[in-house]
Amino acid sequence: MTKQFSLAHLTVLNCPPPEMTYIAARAGYDFVSLRPIYMRLPGEPNYDLAKNKEMMRQTKAALNDTDLKLLDIELARISDGIDPKSYLPAMEVAAELGGRHVLSSIWTDDRNLAIERFDELCELAKPFGLTIELEFVPIAGVFDLKGALGVLRTVKQENAGLMIDVHHFHRSRDKAEDLDTVPREWFRYLHLCDAPAEIPASKDEMTRILREERSYVGEGGIDVASIVNRIPEIPYSLEIPNTKRANELGYEEFARRCLQTAKAYLAAHPRKISVD
């Protein structure tokens, strides 16, 4: 099976969706993964396509011009102060652009609230034909594989799945063999990247690396192959934010090198057995 790759928005965060789409096409990607849900994080641009009609028009035109597909949108966070219904406009955007998935993560320690709102998010996505992919993040409320699987097994939603980010998997100290217990149909795409093997002791440093200084696949210290080769053949979304390199190379060349190094690494570490 030919491997497929998506350019994740965090890799080229200052590129508006139309420009990002053209860059992804020229660099050789199959998909884009957009961030039309405004996160209100320091320095993060607002690409709310539901409100910015002109940017939405340009994004749709870029997808049509390039024949690229929209893989997923992000990030539908579950937290104490966010109503899942606030994500409906972004879901409409995803459906109109032909997207498949909505990425979610849980940032509350209230498990009952997390279950209730994640379940609601899945229900809201169904009329749009979208799946909700739960990503565990080591600095969030649901921070490891066990916690994410607990949520998915409780809600029992057919359109819910598990999105593994290689960085987060390593930082959460999970074991690759534990992926064997996950239903195969829960895997729909994953975030591919690398990072130093040493796990930062502080939350601030972990956050800095995950948002600003990830490594090309195969360049860091994570045993990436041990993770991805336990998962069925699904699209790889390259989420490799590295502010210094992006500034030095420009976003297009940086995106191209992210793809080239990922392809080279995967070719050098083929699957030994089928996990489909």
From TrEMBL:
Domain Xylose isomerase-like TIM barrel: residue ranges: 23-253
Database matches in SUPFAM superfamilies: Xylose isomerase-like (SSF51658)
The Gene Ontology terms for molecular function here are: isomerase activity
| Any single Pfam family the record assigns to this protein | AP_endonuc_2
Which domain of life does the protein's organism represent?
Bacteria
| InterPro entries, per database record | IolE/XylAMocC-like (IPR050312), Xyl_isomerase-like_sf (IPR036237), Xyl_isomerase-like_TIM-brl (IPR013022)
* Keywords associated with the record: Isomerase
Q: Which residues form the signal peptide?
A: none
Q: Which PANTHER family match?
A: BLL3656 PROTEIN (PTHR12110:SF48), HYDROXYPYRUVATE ISOMERASE (PTHR12110)
- The name of this protein is Sugar phosphate isomerase/epimerase family protein
Task: Please report the organism this UniProt entry assigns to the protein.
Answer: Scopulibacillus cellulosilyticus
